[in-house]
Amino acid sequence: MSTVAEALGAITAMFNDDPVAPRILIGGSLYLVGDVLADNGTPPK
What b-and-e string marks burial along 8-20, b requiring 16 or more CB atoms within 10 Å of the CB? Predict the structure, then answer.
């Protein structure tokens, strides 16, 4: 996987049958977190 979207898609596929959405912890890189929040439409202010 080369993008965050691909990784999240793979996680979604693994837990698709669960009634509760998985919680995902992103650690280690504030740049990565910023990219995820920007893609999600919730960039930090």
Answer: beeeeeeeeeeee
**8: Cα separation from own chain's centroid:** 5
Tokens of 14: 């693994």
> Cα separation of 24 and 27, whole Å?
10
**pTM (predicted TM-score):** 0.56
Angle of helix 30-40 relative to helix 4-14, nearest 10 degrees? 70
Convert the pLDDT of each residue in 4-32 to its tens digit: 889 888 988 888 888 887 788 877 788 88
